[in-house]
Specification:
The complex is a heterodimer of chains A (376) and B (91). Chain A is of the alpha/beta class and 376 residues long. Helix content of chain A is 33%, strand content 12%. In chain A, helix 1 packs parallel to helix 2 and helix 2 runs parallel beside helix 3. Chain B has 91 residues and is of the alpha+beta class. In chain B, the strands form two sheets. Chain B has a three-stranded antiparallel β-sheet with strand order 2-3-4, with helices on one face. The chains are: A alpha/beta (376), B alpha+beta (91). At the A-B interface, strand 5 of A face strand 2, strand 3, strand 4 and helix 3 of B.
C-alpha cells in the first residue's frame, strides 16, 4: 500500500491538494494562528464564481483534494455552494473548521452538498485553556458539534493543536476523541511562524514534556489501532533534521489566499522580494508551472551548503524556507532546525531558554499573549 | 486483526473511489492510494454487499493462474491494512 502523496518524482508534477483559504474572518483569535500577520478583510475576498472556477481548474490539472479553510470557512455565507462546487468539479472536499458558526441543519446541508471530511479544531480538552488560547468561549460548542457529527456520514478528524499549556493533557484529549465518531486524530504541535512565532516563548513545550507526550501517543497508537488513526507532529525545533515542508516547495501543494494570490505555502509572503501571481490574472496551471514564487525554491538549484551535497536533500528539501528566513535571515539557507545547519545555535538558544527551570511557570516577565484579531 | 470471512467490508465514511490522470485512486482523509488490478478489484467490492469470502472467491477466479491460498492471504492482509488506515468498516 503506497500512499500517492508519498511518491512523486522530481519534475513538475501537478499539485495533489489545493488549500483554499476562503476568508481571514474568524470568531477565534488563537495565539498561534497560521494566517499572516496582515489579514485581509471581507471586501477583498474572492466571490463564489471565482472559487468555482479555481476548483474546476484544479481538478482539471490533476488535484485530488481541496482543503476549505480560513480563517473560519463557515463565516462564508456561500459555504454550501462552495462545497458543492468543489465536489462537482471532482475534488475530495475537506472542511477545516472551529465548528463555531455551525448548527445541526447547516451540517446536514454541508454533507448533502458533498462534504467528504470535516476537521474540527480543538484548543484543548478543557474549557479554560481553550478560552485562554482562542480568546473566545468556544469549547462547549465544539462538544455539541461532536454529537451532531455522530448523526451524519462524513469522515471526522479532530485536530488538537499542541503547545506547552496543553501538552500534559493528551490523555484527556484521547478520551474526548474516543467518545466521538472521529476515525483520525491529529496532535499537531504549533509551528513557529506568524502569530505563533510572536508567542513562541510561551508556546514551546519543554523537552521532558515532549518526551512524555511521545510515550503517551505511542502506546495510544497501539491501543487504538483499527479504531482511530493517530498522527503526531512534534515541534521541529526539537528535531535532528528538518521537516519536508509542504512536501517540497512547489511540489505537491498550492495555497490560494482569500484575495486570490497563489502561494507555495501559508507563510510564503514573509519572504521579501517574492512576487505572487493572482488567480484573477492567470490560470492555475500557468501559475503552478511558471510563476516566480513557485519556481524560486523548487528542485535543488537554489540550495546552499550543506544542503547542496547532502544525502537527505531529496527527503526534506532543505526544510522550511520561511523558517530559514525567520531564524537565519536568509530564505535560501539550510533550515536552522537541522543539526547540520551552521545556524542551529539559534534554535538551541531558544530551546535552552525554554528548558531553564525558571521558565516552566509564567512570571511577571513572561510576555503577554499576542492575540490574532479579526480583520477590520 | 484478521478479517472475519463472513463479514461484509464497506468503505468508511469519507472514503471513496476517485480518478486522477486516468489512475483510479482511493480517496480518504489527507491521503489517496493508487489502485491497480487486484487492489481495484478488491476495493470495488467493498460496498457492504459482498462478504470477505465472496471477494476472495471472485479474485481467485479472476486471477486463476495465481496460487489460491496466496490470493486469500494477500486479500486478508490488504483488507486488514485498509482497516488500520480506517478506510474500511466490517459489518
Amino acid at each position: 500500500m503506497r500512499a500517492l502523496f508519498g511518491r512523486m518524482s522530481n519534475d513538475i508534477a501537478n499539485p495533489l491538494a489545493l488549500i483554499a483559504e476562503l476568508t481571514h474572518r474568524c470568531p477565534l483569535h488563537c495565539v498561534y494562528c497560521s494566517n499572516p500577520l496582515e489579514l485581509q478583510n471581507r471586501a477583498n475576498e474572492l466571490n463564489t464564481e471565482a472559487w468555482t472556477r479555481i476548483f474546476q481548474e484544479a481538478a482539471q490539472m490533476g488535484v485530488l483534494q481541496a482543503d476549505l479553510t480560513g480563517g473560519e470557512p463557515l463565516t462564508r455565507i456561500d459555504i454550501i455552494e462552495l462545497v458543492r462546487a468543489a465536489r462537482t468539479a471532482g475534488l475530495y472536499v475537506n472542511l477545516i473548521t472551529s465548528g463555531l458558526p455551525l448548527d445541526e441543519a447547516r451540517l446536514a446541508k454541508l454533507v448533502d452538498a458533498g462534504l467528504d471530511h470535516l476537521q474540527l479544531s480543538f484548543q484543548g480538552a478543557r474549557e479554560e485553556i481553550a478560552t485562554e488560547i482562542s480568546g473566545t468561549k468556544s469549547h462547549p460548542q465544539k462538544l455539541r458539534v461532536l454529537e451532531w457529527l455522530k448523526q451524519v456520514r462524513v469522515a471526522v478528524t479532530l485536530n488538537f493543536v499542541i503547545h506547552r499549556g496543553n501538552i500534559d493533557q493528551i490523555e484527556e484529549m484521547l478520551a474526548l476523541a474516543e467518545s466521538s465518531s472521529a476515525t483520525r486524530v491529529e496532535f499537531a504541535n504549533v509551528q513557529y511562524y506568524g502569530w505563533a512565532f510572536a508567542n513562541r516563548e510561551r508556546l514551546l513545550p519543554t523537552r521532558p514534556q515532549l518526551d512524555r507526550s511521545i510515550e503517551t501517543l505511542k502506546s495510544a497508537q497501539e491501543r487504538l489501532r483499527g479504531k482511530i488513526r493517530l498522527e503526531y507532529v512534534v515541534p521541529d525545533y526539537y528535531a535532528k533534521y528538518p521537516k519536508p515542508c509542504m512536501g517540497g516547495w512547489g511540489r505537491k501543494l498550492m495555497l490560494i489566499t482569500p484575495t486570490g494570490d497563489a502561494l507555495p505555502c501559508h507563510a510564503a509572503k514573509v519572504i521579501p522580494g517574492l512576487t505572487f501571481d493572482n488567480v484573477k490574472d492567470r490560470g492555475l496551471r500557468e501559475i503552478w508551472e511558471m510563476s516566480e514564487a513557485f519556481q524560486k525554491f523548487r528542485g535543488e538549484v537554489w540550495m546552499q551548503e550543506p544542503c547542496k551535497t547532502c544525502d537527505r536533500r531529496e527527503l526534506d528539501f532543505g526544510g522550511c524556507r520561511c523558517q530559514a528566513l525567520l531564524l537565519a535571515g536568509d530564505p535560501a539557507a539550510t533550515d536552522p532546525v537541522c543539526s547540520l545547519a551552521p545556524t542551529r545555535g539559534k534554535v538551541d538558544a531558544i530551546l535552552e531558554a525554554v528548558n531553564k527551570p525558571s521558565a516552566a511557570e509564567p512570571s511577571l516577565t513572561t510576555p503577554a499573549w499576542l492575540y490574532r484579531p479579526n480583520p477590520a | 486483526m484478521i478479517p472475519d470471512p463472513n463479514s461484509k467490508p464497506r468503505l468508511a465514511p469519507g472514503c471513496r473511489l476517485g480518478e486522477n490522470n486516468q489512475q483510479r485512486v482511493l480517496l480518504m482523509p489527507e491521503r489517496a492510494l493508487r489502485l491497480n488490478g487486484p487492489s481495484l478489484e478488491i476495493v470495488q467490492r467493498c460496498d457492504g454487499n459482498h462478504t470477505v469470502q465472496e471477494i476472495i472467491a471472485k479474485l481467485q477466479q479472476i486471477y486463476s493462474k495465481a496460487e489460491p491460498k496466496k490470493v486469500e492471504t494477500d486479500i486478508l492482509d490488504y483488507l486488514a491494512r485498509l482497516h488500520d488506515q480506517r478506510a474500511l468498516d466490517f459489518a
